[in-house]
């Protein structure tokens, strides 16, 4: 899936609306309603990811954490690993800040899916997510914000 900006999408939709109303004299109310539903179908709490040759829609709440492999971001869920064509900075903006936290330059975690937090060296932490054995580091850069996010 190619990255897109909402601004360009809105401009294109406005252009299509203008074209539709000029070309169709008998523009039906139901058609307008369908177009509005399509336009307003911004999957605010979901994200589209690649699952082999298919695109899968994942709820934000299913995400355990996000990491980077090579030059691609990978979303880790209970059900598998999914590649997404957004970098971590773009994902950090897209994901709700009250539920997701950047712990490291290569990791974003879902705060609601934390299972345990262990102290690590240099006053940093290692986070273990629910239903996952992976350990996610909290770098020194993010320790203070992480303590605030989890209420320490």
TrEMBL record:
The keyword DNA-binding applies. Pfam families: LytTR. Residues 47-152 form the HTH LytTR-type domain. InterPro entries: LytR-like, LytTR_DNA-bd_dom. One of its GO terms (molecular function) is DNA binding. PROSITE patterns: HTH_LYTTR (PS50930). This is LytTr DNA-binding domain-containing protein.
């Amino acid at each position: 899936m190619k990255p897109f900006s909402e601004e360009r999408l809105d401009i294109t939709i406005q252009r299509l609306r203008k074209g539709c109303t000029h070309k169709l004299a008998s523009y039906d109310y139901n058609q307008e309603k369908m177009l509005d539903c399509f336009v307003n179908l911004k999957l605010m709490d979901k994200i589209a990811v690649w699952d082999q040759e298919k695109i899968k829609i994942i709820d934000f709440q299913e995400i355990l954490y996000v990491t980077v492999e090579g030059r691609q971001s990978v979303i880790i869920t209970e059900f598998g690993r999914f590649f997404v064509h957004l970098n971590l900075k773009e994902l950090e903006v897209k994901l709700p800040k009250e539920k997701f936290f950047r712990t490291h330059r290569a990791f974003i975690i879902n705060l609601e899916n934390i299972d345990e937090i262990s102290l690590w060296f240099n006053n940093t932490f290692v986070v273990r997510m629910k239903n996952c054995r992976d350990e996610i580091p909290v770098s020194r850069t993010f320790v203070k914000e992480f303590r605030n996010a989890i209420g320490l």
